[in-house]
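To the wet lab folks,

You asked to see what we're planning to order before we commit. Fair enough. Below is the target structure as tokens, and below that is the sequence we designed to fit it. If anything looks off to you, flag it before the synthesis order goes out.
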């Protein structure tokens, strides 16, 4: 990335955030990592901070505190707002958490930007869950009306709206990235990680939430990072939205098969919970998701890995992690 002297990554110790920090530093940028470590992990950034001490610094702070955020955004050209509670399931992320950690934290950031007034661009990590149960596949950025079925999806959509309004009112550019399921090193949640944990406890049986027919797009982190940079460097609109995902999807059942294959297990019994209505894994789980990525592809980006390949690569990485 060119033209920015100081880059701030909010949520920089999280899965995507820390991976992005490493990518940006390797490209020669000076990166400020901001995180409160509620869901981020210091181990994700420890090596970056040690290896690139002259190009990185860590600010530990809370996105919900204006004083902390104003300190972080001062003398910053571009901000990657990747901080959020990443859990979609209601029992893991209740409505209050979604509001405080996603919507309210975004409001505080925007207020800090308004008061500081020197920001060129904000890049926001949104989600495919803003589309809810789409009835057109692949789903493009102009699909509507948007009807999220999870509080998480609703919180991201509300944040998108706030960011757009502030961008127009206070004159900074915005790139909104609606991510599919991003997987790879440094991730510590999601279906693959859950399957491995369950199988390490019981190699004979695997509980699968829902009916196993849920089909979604999975994108490997390397492809995701290249997509982020492409959107930032080649996007031209004042406020621009991009879908970021693979060109195909994979079922939960197939993911279970890949995980058991990679673990070298045979004759594993799959036990389906049935889940919520229509075989969802839980209430609020979007059963089918495939994004239309033609807009980003038109700028020269294309995913290297298909969904199954991404799942297999991520599985192999997780299996290298000590129990």
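Sequence we intend to order:
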């Amino acid at each position: 990335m060119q033209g920015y002297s100081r880059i701030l990554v909010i949520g920089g110790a999280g899965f995507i955030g820390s991976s992005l920090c490493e990518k940006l530093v390797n490209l020669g940028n000076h990166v400020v990592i901001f995180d409160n470590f509620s869901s981020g992990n210091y181990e994700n950034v420890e090596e970056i901070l040690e290896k690139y001490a002259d190009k990185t610094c860590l600010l530990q702070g809370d996105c919900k505190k204006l004083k902390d955020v104003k300190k972080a955004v001062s003398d910053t050209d571009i901000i990657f707002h990747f901080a959020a509670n990443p859990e979609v399931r209601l029992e893991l992320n209740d409505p209050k958490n979604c509001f405080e950690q996603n919507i309210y934290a975004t409001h505080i950031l925007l207020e800090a930007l308004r008061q500081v007034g020197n920001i060129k661009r904000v890049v926001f990590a949104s989600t495919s869950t803003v589309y809810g149960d789409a009835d057109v596949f692949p789903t493009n950025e102009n699909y509507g009306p948007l009807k999220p079925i999870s509080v998480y999806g609703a919180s991201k959509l509300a944040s998108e709206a706030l960011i757009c309004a502030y961008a127009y009112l206070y004159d900074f550019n915005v790139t909104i990235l609606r991510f599919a399921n991003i997987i790879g090193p440094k991730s510590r949640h999601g279906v693959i990680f859950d399957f491995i944990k369950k199988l390490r406890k019981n190699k004979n049986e695997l509980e699968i939430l829902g009916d196993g027919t849920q089909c979604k797009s999975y994108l490997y982190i390397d492809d995701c990072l290249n997509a982020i940079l492409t959107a930032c460097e080649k996007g031209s609109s004042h406020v621009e939205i991009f879908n970021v995902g693979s060109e195909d999807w994979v079922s939960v059942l197939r993911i279970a098969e890949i995980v058991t294959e990679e673990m070298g297990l045979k004759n594993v019994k799959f036990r389906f919970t049935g889940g919520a209505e229509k075989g969802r894994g839980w209430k609020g789980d979007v059963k089918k998701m495939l994004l239309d990525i033609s807009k980003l592809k038109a700028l020269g980006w294309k995913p290297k890995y298909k969904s199954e390949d991404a799942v297999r690569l991520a599985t192999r990485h997780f299996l290298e992690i000590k129990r």
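Structural context that might help your review: The chain has a mean pLDDT of 94. DSSP finds ten helices and 14 strands in the chain.

Thanks,
Computational group
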